[in-house]
Amino acid sequence: xxxxxxxxxxxxxxVPLLALALGACGYGSQARKDTASEVVPQGAKTDGLDExxxxxxxxxxxxxxxxxxxxxxxxxxxxxxxVKSSVFNAGPAEIEALNSGAIDIGWIGPSPAINGxxxxxxxxxxxxxxxxxxxxxxxxxxxxxxSLADLKGKTIATPQLGNTQDVAxxxxxAQRGYTVDATTGKGDVTVQRTENKVTPTAxxxxxxxGAWVPxxxxxxxxxxxxxxxxxxKSLWPNGKFVITNVIVSQKFLKEHPxxxxxxxxxxxxxxxxxxxxxxxxxxxxNDQLADPQIAGKALPADxxxxxxxxxxxxxxxxxxxxxQEADHxxxxxxxxxxxxxxIYDLTLLNKVLGxxxxxxxxxxxxxxx
Length: 369
Fold this sequence. Notes:
The protein is of the alpha/beta class.
């Protein structure tokens, strides 16, 4: 086991329970070994750096880094500076990696980004771009649940206590008048925290009646007989809400802005390529997932297709929805009122967008002074 991996695993294991709950994305608890881009660096080094270390998850909501690395789009922007990537299964390990300098830039969900920022009193990270929106559904056993009115007395899974989908389900149930103890998950509806990799089996065995989960878990449940009862997009204005952000170490941002700008340019151009080449992008994503260093297995066509289609890539971090997601966690009693002022720095993103002839994006009043 590498020293980096050992350190990340140890850090993840010692995170206090509440911090782990609020930070995790529900895809497991381990960080996988470092992997490097297969595209050969060429040209001058950006900011004089030998490498830029980026982190992400091996799933469809992190399509931007997966496809961008596969197609060499990040490496092209960084020239002679090598892209070095690390794959994570959970938010706490990725935040620890960012804090320790094991990675410089990461793709991560809103809950761990909020937790990482607030725990460091606003000194560890900045959100510098969006990456994905949507890609979350309530999938149920159609024999047990035929409508939203049938949820009472049923057991619904979420990936982990306090993670983004857990908070979303608790908020949804509260709005519909159901009472649920956020910590135990007991109440009118039982909220059962179950890792995404276990959820399809629990669903097939009847241990749960449904699940509020991200892709590709939602598509996996559908493939074994589940029905999408609710797409979370329907609960948000214009069907948009943040599921994946791009974060950076504040130290790295200050010391290497040209490298950060190059990565953001790669992100923006990757998202544009994904939107204009959806079929090819889905294949590139699946090919990358098959890499033993990432997921080790490609997804079947009946899963990768719906999962990819249900998740939208975006450069806009959808800052207003991040604020709302934090408010939902506070109302559920899983988070103290956070001070999110300064969590965003969209300066370089808006510079990149401007160079592409596109309008700037907004930080919803949560940007740096």
